[in-house]
Amino acid sequence: MALNGDSGYAAPGTYQTSNESVLPIFNVEKVQLQFQIGSDFVAGQVANNVLILALATGRILRIDLESPSDIDGTSVKSETRGQADRRRR
Hints:
mainly beta, elongated
């Protein structure tokens, strides 16, 4: 069976000719926060122009990069191993 690029996914560059321009799959751009976080970052994820930050304090921030002044946040309560063990009894 021959590979047909018109009927499904093909990796970028598979069917390019030498005179076609190549567009990147995604762009990485610098972002500068306009406020102080006050805690260390634990994790971060960006998708569809939305930045999710998890902080060491248990706070999770959701920042829409198209309107970065509008920030949604929530806190996640963590429990110690001793608290989880007591609940299981």
